[in-house]
């Protein structure tokens, strides 16, 4: 499906008709980077709509289907190390990812009785198209890489493998947790 997840009606129609579901990965995000004093209403609204609102809404649609079918399930929300550490020009991004971490904990608490597990993965910069756009400046990236004990940004497979673990039965007792995929950034 290809749609704007900020459009709740289109999302409801498309995702609601696509089931049944047992697994969900919420990975859509925007990173509209602006200094705190220059944050625009448009950037804030778009970030909230995509980084938080879309996760809430898609998860509601999928979880309702899982509950109606009586099947256990797993949801993984892709958050960020930025939910735990302030980054310059990331006021809105850091805030939406922190909110996503808490939303995931509430979801885990409320969906657990229905045998639906909810967790987050919290990667460092990942070398996706968006990661390359925001971190291609060597002066900017050097400061971040120097704070990562493993000395590099994450590759897509690093995050995918963590998500696969959280979706699998290998993590059957894990819910409400955040798996840091940050090369040690948060311990430095």
Automatic annotation (TrEMBL):
Transmembrane segments: none annotated. Pfam families: adh_short_C2 (PF13561). Keywords: NADP, Oxidoreductase. GO terms for biological process: glucose metabolic process; xylulose metabolic process. GO terms for molecular function: carbonyl reductase (NADPH) activity; L-xylulose reductase (NADPH) activity. InterPro entries: L-xylulose/Carbonyl_redctase, NAD(P)-bd_dom_sf, Sc_DH/Rdtase_CS, SDR_fam. It comes from the Eukaryota. Homotetramer. Belongs to the short-chain dehydrogenases/reductases (SDR) family. This is DER reductase. It comes from Oceanodroma tethys (Wedge-rumped storm-petrel). The lineage of its organism: Eukaryota, Metazoa, Chordata, Craniata, Vertebrata.
């Amino acid at each position: 499906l290809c749609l704007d997840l900020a459009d709740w009606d289109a999302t409801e129609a498309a995702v609601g008709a696509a089931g049944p579901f047992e697994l969900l990965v919420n990975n859509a995000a925007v990173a509209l980077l602006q200094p705190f004093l220059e944050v625009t209403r448009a950037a804030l609204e778009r970030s909230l709509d995509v980084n938080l609102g879309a996760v809430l809404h898609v998860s509601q649609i999928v979880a309702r289907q899982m509950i109606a079918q009586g099947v256990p399930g797993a949801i993984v929300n892709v958050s960020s190390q930025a939910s735990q550490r302030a980054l310059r020009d990331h006021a809105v991004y850091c805030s939406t990812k922190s909110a996503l971490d808490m939303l995931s904990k509430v979801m885990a608490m409320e969906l657990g009785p229905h045998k639906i597990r909810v967790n987050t993965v919290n990667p460092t910069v990942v070398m996706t198209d968006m990661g390359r756009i925001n971190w291609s400046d060597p002066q900017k990236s050097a400061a971040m890489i120097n704070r990562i004990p493993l000395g590099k940004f994450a590759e897509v497979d690093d995050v995918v493998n963590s998500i696969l673990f959280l979706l699998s039965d290998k993590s059957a007792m894990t819910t409400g947790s955040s798996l840091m995929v940050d090369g040690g950034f948060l311990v430095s």
